[in-house]
Automatic annotation (TrEMBL):
EC number: 5.2.1.8
GO biological process, one term: mitotic spindle organization
Keywords: Cytoplasm, Isomerase, Rotamase
Protein name: Serine/threonine-protein phosphatase 2A activator
Localisation per UniProt entry: Cytoplasm
Organism: Ambispora gerdemannii
Top-rank taxon, per record: Eukaryota
UniProt family annotation: Belongs to the PTPA-type PPIase family.
Length: 357
């Protein structure tokens, strides 16, 4: 249900409050969890069986959000990577990009007509959507911040159910496109040693929403992801196939070896079953994992009372590891960018791949 928050209410800059397994368990039983997860489900339902090009109502607010994402993308174009060709790790120029976004976030939200008192709270989610400044990495926790930002916009009354279709097909898809640009431009490291538990190195939700798009498709079956022609032809219309094309572009081995979970999922008979499984998997493997959710933040719009880090540095907070329960670790082990590796290889090898590559 769409509920607007009173703009005159007090706002709080979001902080981390999930620091222990007990915090995580309380969060999973909280209204904040229900609100966030229900929002994901509503967005998922809104784009079932729809192509990216499907006509949808784009309100002025939604168009303004798209314009903001275009501006963020322009920052990437204006800030070239530092010459660091022999390193597969994140490029330091990303920090300049991050600072540019951080320094202009308030202006973005003023242009969206966000109440001034709410801007410090909602802009924190927006800034954290683009990755970690210090580690130069990106993962599902950052992706979750973007969804949290959209949820805050709904709670403030700026978007509602009539916008859900355009939020996924126009806004979220644009966000993923900008993130792919960042990943290629700055060789962002995946936030975790195995990315998103075997989906792709960075994202989860394009698979969830993308499988919803494909429900009931007459010709494209789950096993069609192994058909390069199908992937190439339909990747511009379906997020799931765009993800497969991305993986194929940066990893030379077959899905069986570089993405075994996706390979296994392709054996499921229907997209409906895959979508149902993705929803359960997101709940368990993203929202249910301490290494990811310890980075999630709470303020007044998304409210939860767990532990609280006092005098927390905004970008260099302590990371909690729950050994024996969560895998993989979210940090501490630098993971080189597969994108960087592929681009280095393409420069060092001939354009034609070796048959045993």
């Amino acid at each position: 249900m769409f509920v607007a928050t009173d703009p005159s209410s007090s706002f709080t800059v979001p902080k981390r409050k999930i620091l222990t397994k007990e915090d995580l368990q309380r969060f999973q039983e909280s209204s904040a969890f229900q609100e966030y997860f229900a929002f994901i489900e509503r967005l998922n339902e809104s784009i079932k069986s729809l192509k990216l090009s499907t006509d949808c109502v784009v309100s002025q607010v939604v168009q303004n959000i798209i314009d903001v994402l275009d501006i963020v993308n322009s920052y990437c174009e204006e800030i070239p990577p530092v010459r660091n060709e022999k390193s597969r790790f994140g490029n330091p120029a990303f920090r300049d990009f991050y600072d540019r976004v951080n320094n202009t976030a308030a202006e973005f939200h003023e242009n969206l007509s966000i109440p001034p008192a709410a801007i410090p709270e909602i802009s924190r989610y927006f800034v954290e959507s683009w990755g970690n400044r210090k580690r130069i990495d990106y993962g599902t926790g950052h992706e979750a911040n973007f969804i949290a930002w959209l949820l805050c916009l709904e709670k403030l009354g700026f978007i509602g159910p009539d916008d859900y279709r355009s939020i996924v097909l126009r806004v979220f898809h644009k966000y993923i496109e900008v993130m792919r640009t960042l990943q290629f431009q700055y060789w962002l490291e995946p936030a975790g040693s195995h990315g998103v538990w075997g989906l792709d190195d960075y994202h989860f939700l394009p698979f969830l929403f993308g499988s919803s798009q494909l429900i009931g498709h007459k010709y494209i079956r789950p096993k069609s992801i192994h058909d390069k022609d199908v992937v190439d032809e339909y990747s511009k219309e379906y997020m799931y196939l765009a993800c497969i094309k991305f993986i194929n572009s940066v990893k030379t081995a077959s899905l069986q070896w570089n993405s075994p979970m996706i390979n296994d999922i392709s054996g499921v008979k229907t997209w409906n079953k895959i979508n149902e499984g993705m929803i359960k998997m997101y709940k368990a493997e993203v929202l249910g994992k301490l290494p990811i959710m310890q980075h999630f933040m709470f303020g007044s719009l998304i409210d939860f009372e767990g532990s609280l880090v006092n005098d927390e540095d905004e970008h260099d907070h302590v990371h909690v590891h729950a050994f024996g329960q969560e895998f993989p670790d979210c940090c501490g082990i630098k993971v080189p960018s597969a994108i960087g590796a592929s681009q280095i290889s393409s420069r060092e090898a001939s354009a034609k791949r070796l048959p045993f590559d």
